[in-house]
Every structure is written in C-alpha cells, then in structure tokens.
C-alpha cells in the first residue's frame, strides 16, 4: 500500500509539474551524458563509473555516476530536451550525493548552464559560463558548506551570504534549490529546509542603497577619547625623590671579608616598596566624549534596483565540474522542474525508498571492517608475543615447555638405568 501511495502521489505531481530534466542513471545513461575534453590533454581529467557503490538500498535503482581516480578534475554534462525559461515560474534543481570515500577535500555541486554556452560544452570546465552552481563543498574542517552561486545579468557569479552547512558523512543525501518568482528561495537537504530568505538580501545583486559619505571628515572638535587624564590629579611633593632601591638593613658584613682583597664592603640593595615608578595622573571618564565618529550615510549614486533577480538566462545544459583530492563521490537522481511538490515526491520515491536499507548495509559493513581490524590486531599481537618467546630461546634465558618435559624424561630414564645396575 505504501509503494502504491507513493506512485499515485508521483503521478499526480507529474501531471501538474513541468519536468525539464530527470536522470536516474539507468544502463543507458552514457547515451545522454558526455565527458568534457577539459584537462584531458594534460592527464588531469578524471573518469566516471556506473555503480551503486559498496553500500546501497537497491543495487540497481541506486546506481549513479562515481568520480575516479584521485587528484583529478571531473567534468561531465548532458543536454536538456528543451530550453528552460523560468520567467514567472518556480525553478527547482535537485540531485543526490554520496561521498562514499569520506570526502576530505573536493566539490560535490551541480551546474545549470545557459544556452549561450553551447559552443563551450565540448571543453566544459571551470571557465565555462553557468547560471547556477549548487551543492556541497568540503575541504577539511574549514569548508563544509552548501554552495549556492547565481549569475546576475552582468555575468557576475554571486555566492550567497547566508552560510548553510552540508552533510559530511558517507551516506546518500539530497540537495534541493528552489527559486521563486517573488525573489525568494529555499535550500533543502533531505527534504528538510536548511535555509530560506530573500534573494535581494542574501545575494549582492544590487549595490547598497546607501553608503558612507566618502567626502565627510571628522570635525576637529570631535572628541572620541573614552578616558582622559584627571586634570585635578597632581603629583605628590617629593614623589620623584623616592629611590627605586634601598639598602638591606639586615645585611651584615661577612666575617671573612678583607677590604684589601675584596674591596670596601657595601650592603646589598633591595627593591623599595614605596617606589611606584614614573608618576602619571589617574584616568577618568571623558565628559566630552561623543562616541566613535562615523561618516554619515548618503544615497548611493551607483544603486540600481533590479526587480527580477530570480530570473535566469535560458538554460539548456546540466553538468558536474569539480576537483576532488580523493575520488569516489556518487551522483544520482538529477531533477530540474518547476514544481517543488514533484521534487519532494521524487526525492522520497528515490532516496527516501533506499535510505533505511542503505544505513543498515553501511552499518553492517562498518561493523565487519571493525571486527576484521580487531582480529588482525589480536593476530599481530599474538605473533609479537611468539616472536619474543623465540628470542628468549636463542639467548638461553628460557626453555619452551616441551623441551623441559623432554629433559625430565631423559633424567628419569637415566635414574631407572642406575637402579637396574645397582640390583645386578
């Protein structure tokens, strides 16, 4: 019943939704996707494998494309059946990522590429113009974020100012970017909202409405000193006459001191407890303090309102362009649509149907590896102990039990033979 309900939901959503691109990476995926020539002549281009990886929920349904080998630029792209014009419409881009290699440093993002970049697709790479770059990027602990870069009408690639943390484990996760015609957006991870807001606020599409007046200068009588010296505080009389050190009154001349040989004896000096160093007046709160001076704000002459920042150029291609130190990331279930409900149902029917079994398989494999590692550790420890015993034998420090038993047997035989001789 549950599977039938999901199928019915997907069918209803499909009727209402416009699906521009949908890729589950079946056995004919290579007919739809092309590797780029970028970096290939330098031997720096990676390859793509069709696999579900070592752990999965369904061996066939969970097959995607996996990066290989390490330290490579990985680029691949596909053409959408028709141009995507998101004027007045929602736009949703979604895909799943599994960092099966336990990502240490590398990208896991997707790109939506405009029709205008068609002539660049054969060498699709880092310099190819795109409209959206979206997905996880990891490099140690310093970078663990979801990239959300949008290209404006001036060709600038603008990164969101709102930080969103990505998933860093080795399981499959779904990333969704939803742009809306009211200039708002949502970012979802595993169908749960991770960020939302206004495009105008979270991206620098526009110059600021106001700026600090570049011509303004701090007035000469502006006092920004928080504390000042107390003008009423006076240095006490005789303050400068207090010596830094004084003679140790308890010191005594040693009995064996010889003035002719040792010179004239002088008592040692001690720090003077009354000496307080150079005098300075006490500090008090400045009654004339006006605060930190800031230039006044004025209208920015370069400000220009851009009404429809959600709108992208006509889109025609979907691609992955990334650098990975350690390869092994698997991408699957790529979707471009105008319906967020369909995207949610699609995610639940793919990733959602596999996630529990994938987790069970992952845990089972992790336990097996841990058990094997522990067994190997014990085996190596036993081998080390045996080696220590052999070393003692060679040095004559100890004898193995079987050798000692043999010695006792020989001694016993000799004693019986002596007794027989005595009877004769």
From TrEMBL:
<feature type="binding site">
    <location>
        <position position="130"/>
    </location>
    <ligand>
        <name>an alpha-D-glucoside</name>
    </ligand>
</feature>
<keyword id="KW-0143">Chaperone</keyword>
<dbReference type="GO" id="GO:0005509">
    <property type="term" value="F:calcium ion binding"/>
</dbReference>
<dbReference type="InterPro" id="IPR009169">
    <property type="entry name" value="Calreticulin"/>
</dbReference>
<dbReference type="GO" id="GO:0006457">
    <property type="term" value="P:protein folding"/>
</dbReference>
<protein>
    <recommendedName>
        <fullName>Calreticulin</fullName>
    </recommendedName>
</protein>
<dbReference type="GO" id="GO:0036503">
    <property type="term" value="P:ERAD pathway"/>
</dbReference>
<comment type="function">
    <text>Molecular calcium-binding chaperone promoting folding, oligomeric assembly and quality control in the ER via the calreticulin/calnexin cycle. This lectin may interact transiently with almost all of the monoglucosylated glycoproteins that are synthesized in the ER.</text>
</comment>
<keyword id="KW-0430">Lectin</keyword>
<comment type="similarity">
    <text>Belongs to the calreticulin family.</text>
</comment>
<keyword id="KW-0732">Signal</keyword>
<dbReference type="InterPro" id="IPR013320">
    <property type="entry name" value="ConA-like_dom_sf"/>
</dbReference>
<keyword id="KW-1015">Disulfide bond</keyword>
<feature type="binding site">
    <location>
        <position position="109"/>
    </location>
    <ligand>
        <name>an alpha-D-glucoside</name>
    </ligand>
</feature>
<feature type="binding site">
    <location>
        <position position="321"/>
    </location>
    <ligand>
        <name>an alpha-D-glucoside</name>
    </ligand>
</feature>
<feature type="disulfide bond">
    <location>
        <begin position="105"/>
        <end position="139"/>
    </location>
</feature>
<dbReference type="GO" id="GO:0030246">
    <property type="term" value="F:carbohydrate binding"/>
</dbReference>
<feature type="signal peptide">
    <location>
        <begin position="1"/>
        <end position="17"/>
    </location>
</feature>
<feature type="binding site">
    <location>
        <position position="111"/>
    </location>
    <ligand>
        <name>an alpha-D-glucoside</name>
    </ligand>
</feature>
<feature type="binding site">
    <location>
        <position position="137"/>
    </location>
    <ligand>
        <name>an alpha-D-glucoside</name>
    </ligand>
</feature>
<dbReference type="GO" id="GO:0005788">
    <property type="term" value="C:endoplasmic reticulum lumen"/>
</dbReference>
<feature type="compositionally biased region" description="Acidic residues">
    <location>
        <begin position="412"/>
        <end position="424"/>
    </location>
</feature>
<dbReference type="InterPro" id="IPR018124">
    <property type="entry name" value="Calret/calnex_CS"/>
</dbReference>
<keyword id="KW-0106">Calcium</keyword>
<feature type="region of interest" description="Disordered">
    <location>
        <begin position="368"/>
        <end position="424"/>
    </location>
</feature>
<dbReference type="Pfam" id="PF00262">
    <property type="entry name" value="Calreticulin"/>
</dbReference>
<dbReference type="InterPro" id="IPR001580">
    <property type="entry name" value="Calret/calnex"/>
</dbReference>
<dbReference type="GO" id="GO:0005789">
    <property type="term" value="C:endoplasmic reticulum membrane"/>
</dbReference>
<dbReference type="InterPro" id="IPR009033">
    <property type="entry name" value="Calreticulin/calnexin_P_dom_sf"/>
</dbReference>
<keyword id="KW-0256">Endoplasmic reticulum</keyword>
<feature type="compositionally biased region" description="Basic and acidic residues">
    <location>
        <begin position="368"/>
        <end position="391"/>
    </location>
</feature>
<dbReference type="GO" id="GO:0051082">
    <property type="term" value="F:unfolded protein binding"/>
</dbReference>
<keyword id="KW-0862">Zinc</keyword>
<keyword id="KW-0479">Metal-binding</keyword>
<keyword id="KW-0677">Repeat</keyword>
